[in-house]
Amino acid sequence: MNTAADSSRVADAARKVVQEHDPTRVPTREFLAACFDAGLSWVHFPEGLGGLGVSRGLQSVADGILQDAGGPVPFALNPIGYGMAAPTLREHARTDELKRAWLRPLATTENIWCQLFSEPGAGSDLAGLATSAVRDGDEWVVNGQKVWTSLAHRARWALLLARTDPDAPKHKGLTYFVVDMQDPGVETRPLRQMTGQAEFNEVYLNDARVPDAHRLGEVGDGWRVAMTTLMNERSSIGASGSRRGTGTIADAVSLWASRPDLHTPVLEDRLTRLWLRAEAQRLTSERSRAAATVGGPGPEGSVGKLVGAELNQQVYEFCMDLLGPEGILYDDYTMRDMERTDDWRGPLQQRFLRSRANTIEGGTSEVLRNILGERVLGLPGDLRADAGKPWKEIPRG
Amino acid sequence: MNTAADSSRVADAARKVVQEHDPTRVPTREFLAACFDAGLSWVHFPEGLGGLGVSRGLQSVADGILQDAGGPVPFALNPIGYGMAAPTLREHARTDELKRAWLRPLATTENIWCQLFSEPGAGSDLAGLATSAVRDGDEWVVNGQKVWTSLAHRARWALLLARTDPDAPKHKGLTYFVVDMQDPGVETRPLRQMTGQAEFNEVYLNDARVPDAHRLGEVGDGWRVAMTTLMNERSSIGASGSRRGTGTIADAVSLWASRPDLHTPVLEDRLTRLWLRAEAQRLTSERSRAAATVGGPGPEGSVGKLVGAELNQQVYEFCMDLLGPEGILYDDYTMRDMERTDDWRGPLQQRFLRSRANTIEGGTSEVLRNILGERVLGLPGDLRADAGKPWKEIPRG
Amino acid sequence: MADQQDARPFVFTEEQRELRTAVRKFAADNADEQAVRRLMESDPGFDTKAWTRLGSELGVLGLSVPEEQGGVGGTLVDQAVAVEELGATLYPGPVFGTVALAIPALVAASDGPVRSELLGPLVEGTRTAAVAVADRAGAFDPAAVTVQAARAGDDWTLSGTVERVVDAAAADDLLVAATGPDGVALFAVDATAGGVERTPLTTLDLTRRQATLRFADAPARLLAGPDEAERVIGHALVVGSVLLAVEQVGASQHLLDLTVEYAKGRLQFGRPIGSFQAVKHRLADMLVDLEHARSAAYHAVWALGDGSDDPALAASIAQATCSEAFARIAADTIQLHGGIGFTWEYQAQLYYKRAITDAALLGSAEQHRARIARLVLDTASGEAAPAVATG
Amino acid sequence: MADQQDARPFVFTEEQRELRTAVRKFAADNADEQAVRRLMESDPGFDTKAWTRLGSELGVLGLSVPEEQGGVGGTLVDQAVAVEELGATLYPGPVFGTVALAIPALVAASDGPVRSELLGPLVEGTRTAAVAVADRAGAFDPAAVTVQAARAGDDWTLSGTVERVVDAAAADDLLVAATGPDGVALFAVDATAGGVERTPLTTLDLTRRQATLRFADAPARLLAGPDEAERVIGHALVVGSVLLAVEQVGASQHLLDLTVEYAKGRLQFGRPIGSFQAVKHRLADMLVDLEHARSAAYHAVWALGDGSDDPALAASIAQATCSEAFARIAADTIQLHGGIGFTWEYQAQLYYKRAITDAALLGSAEQHRARIARLVLDTASGEAAPAVATG
Lengths: 397, 397, 391, 391
Description:
The complex is a heterotetramer, with 2 copies of chain A and 2 copies of chain C.
Chain A: H1 4-20, H2 28-37, H3 59-68, H4 74-77, H5 79-92, H6 96-108, E1 113-116, E2 132-136, E3 139-150, E4 157-163, E5 174-180, E6 186-191, E7 197-198, E8 200-211, E9 215-216, H7 222-235, H8 248-258, H9 265-294, H10 300-323, E10 336-337, H11 348-355, H12 365-376
Parallel strand pairs in A: 1-4, 7-10
Antiparallel strand pairs in A: 2-3, 3-8, 4-5, 5-9, 6-8
Chain C: H1 14-30, H2 33-40, H3 48-56, H4 76-88, H5 95-108, H6 113-124, E1 129-132, E2 135-136, E3 139-140, E4 147-152, E5 155-166, E6 173-180, E7 183-190, E8 196-200, E9 210-224, H7 229-265, E10 267-268, E11 271-272, H8 277-306, H9 311-337, H10 348-360, H11 365-377
Helix pairs in contact in C: 1-4, 4-7, 5-6, 5-7, 7-8, 7-9, 7-10, 8-9, 9-10, 9-11
């Protein structure tokens, strides 16, 4: 698959795009449209849908050339779109017309996407969600409340998981839809975090209507479709490695270097431990990447999330302990919506507060340890209170 | 209850014993017999059974006088006897004759006691034990294997928990007995530990016979009786506090003081953390003791076991890290039985190895955290695979 | 609450239990979560009328002030009971500046008109104070004083800057350490006087504010001269450390209760999350941390009263234990609540920010451990060291 | 296994996978648990015939010895594969003294008759060696050398004591650092020569023995003079650290597999204990530790070959990570097995003792962290430090 010919083909296409649409001169959307049309958005997608039908590993060839020439990192501009929606739409949208209609403006970032999965009552237990979708002719009528939705206020489309059969066991009664965020039944309210900002939103669905054509996968098959989405969330980590000392640990090391007046041997040892943990995790990702080219991927995706989240917290706790009384100030708690996803990289104290969410969002550390234990080590599952029961009979709260 | 008159009475009795049986001159057994006869073995027991019928809190008055005069710590000589057997016998033995026949030689340490509870297949899940007792006229015939029995080879009597009804749910089919360790059906084999020593034993019961008169409590009521035993295991901690810096932490602090050449700031901070933890736990015990005099005891029993066990391990890990290459030697792995319960206080490396058992024996740290969560904080229990099922239908292995 | 020693360590008297109930009720009535949020976004950040009632009606701001100084002559245990309950609700008000530091400093100072004039209104809650003293790891360090005192006849003026002074923005009185011709002394400055510039700061914990103070020939009155300033300030820092520890215990207990209730009621996978071992065992560890923190804080409270322990050691044990315990318990509270725990609307974040703030005040846990090492390890004997097998 | 660089970090070649299988089979056949127990209680503590077969038949004792020195000219990756598998079964034999230290030292020394004479039999497994070099935290410290070398014509004699030398009791050859008239040099001493006294020690880990060496005018041959001794010894210690790390990984993987199987099969409360979160999550943490240890060890193995990282830094990263991981995994293995895990009869204790021993060899994790701090933190730039909000 991963032939030299394919690699040349990708590289040639990328060089042509860069030549004809200099990313330092043309508007971002125009550049990304050219990428899509040249099959460079997701090289493993079919031709015509933003790909070239080649091996996924060659994406790094395209990205290297495009970004070296000054092109944007599109994932950063439309993260749910690129990371989760695109692979799900490609696999489950019902017609090629729909796929193309959704994917191209997604790729250009004209249409931002968001995800309507979690609910106040369904966090770790996502499959227990309560938002209902009831069929009404060629449409579905959706009611419920979603939460932890980033970019909802800027999104044109949303991935929705809703319950279509409350009598079925919880994993069996779910269906997957694409929702128009401009539907009058969709209301978005910013959700303020402890940092003062509103990075996420609550989304209320009040008789929102979704055409049956915008269903992804079969009725009742939503959990399986959602797994496509969630699996792809991780693999979007990318094919290129990171350099030693980059990432969150760089904040601690550079703060340390900038404040020799605060050094103590005990803090130095603590920082070295954190650096070591970051380095061991970085090397583990490198190893996983190497292994992926000769065999299946290892357990490193979940390991990376688990370690990274706890490490982030420890890194910023270290920074705060280093600063002592200097650290217990803030800049501005005034509530504000996030305009861009990297807005949260504010001053140190904001990063510190933000890190508390790392072990909760995208799978709590508790859930990740279950995954490592059960899916990687093959340990037996916990006893279930909800196994096989109709969803509506499972206690909630 | 805890009146000044009672206190004087206890003190007078203790002074009289000391006067008439100078513990530095008479044999230990004679001295302890005098204590029993004076009602000072367990002051809260009835008169004639080693007590004076006064408040338990006054035991410290008696112990103080007896031990100040050079008397032994009887708990150390017959720990299962004093700590677990005595309160169980007092409450559940079927006649006063039996109580007296058992308690006096127990108190004098003429008869050492041991406990036959744990089994290879029933550790954390003690109530799942399989040793059977089948009625045969006035006797019971016992078959099974017990483990983690300390002092079995020196014991005259054993506390036994056995299954008398395999068709009942597991907690309901147990009965409690006193077993004669000299019965021909009882075989004791030393169980060697990783230290090289054999502190514990395996005990095999092959058609061992127990008179029904030696049953404690009703048939099927063994679990409740065992709870008496286990609850008393903890309360034997005693009424007097310990001084700051005593206990296991003293090993680390004195080793530290003796080896200034090995000091580093990082090790110093680590040792200080351990010292602080030990001190906080010591103060928590003090507080618990103070609270017990004005209200019910707090959760400190289980807290103490949990913290103490993990702290022991950390203390000796610290010592080994301090010593570095010097520490990875040993004295003697030759197997030997323990003659006295404090024999295990050998060289540092032996204490280090021994400490690994602390988080397992007497309730694993996992079980203790369950207890703190459920019995102290009132959290709901885990889902049960074995609830209500007949014992014989519960999977084991 | 007569002037007395508390007889038995760790045992509260009937009066103290009643005091606890009264303060708890007052805090519930005047500082429920909505009130705390309203006040923390208002100026001066607390309800001055309620503060006055705390002082005048409940009489809990200067509980350990001797009767001859106009106080009720209680013990530090009494004061600790009140502070613990105020801590449990994050009671907005200058507990740290006024109750934990300024009043103990005034009590320790020699008698005199300045002390008499200041102490009464602080105890009554009609005025509040902040203490601008450079502490290094919770101990007084004269070399770190950044304010100069100049004398002109009987009058003093101060010049210099003190950064990040807790409760200073709204304080009426400032107690300031300054270096004069004969050494470091402690002065009282009227916060509204000329030459005093206060810059309020945006704090991580909005319920515990700070301000930077700049003095430019600000008029000051001498409170404790170089002969006693170090002792007076040292006393205040020790008492402040201990009361801060007790406050941390109050807040930690609140969080443990809150999280246990949540874990009982929150269902996922058809069962209460508290039935999962991952949640249950974390709560068990929180309980252990809390028990240890409570024991360490109470020990210090009693030891300062009955002299049964070195005050500096007892205070460091309390601070080293309670700072870490509160921060860990607050972080775990957020974790066990999941997403909701991270929102602005939920109360967990308020406590978390207080925990992080408190941990940085009056010395870090690491700094207190270093002090403990000096006091305990450096004086230990190696005589009873265990034998080391040598192969 | 031609003399080659291993092309891609972390990717084993087909030959290396076959090598792994072969060594694993050899270890299973010759060093199952019963054999290990029998050998560890016998003298000399390992099966000399099997050791010779490891060298002569399997050819895995000097895999990275260049062809021109009589080796097979493989890479350090090859050697690491073999050591990892030997570590998995606690293979009793002088892996540490001979394979990890002595052979790398000889390979690094300049060519000469002494080297030629020694290297062949060690690679063949017909003789074994131990290295008596004072390391300080895994690095060579000439100042810590405790042996004196005296020259008489072309002959050398050594005098002095080296304590606790791994694999020395049964070694045929001793490589000894000694201070001579021109500085520290590395000498070879025949262990059976006059003037050599060996005192076997009772070790915590019976499968990895030690002895104290006393030299009294013992005849010695110069292996590496003062001009190169430091480089030679330094190389041996770095390679030894890395191979020790790999060995730790092999043993850790064995323990994780063992404990997972136990947790699946052991029933309490009518269910496998591995279904309880307390057990499952601890195993998940063991997995993370192992993955990190493996990555750090393999990185060092490849980096020493391809020069992609500072060897000292890579070795310290490996040792700091693997020592802690193995010790923690071994302790958790005992805990998760409950009582049985603590018995003499069960294999967990053998691995635990090895883990504790390995953690103390060639520098502790703390010492390696200190070295990493020198190499990484002391050279870091503070330019990109995040802004700190100042209120």
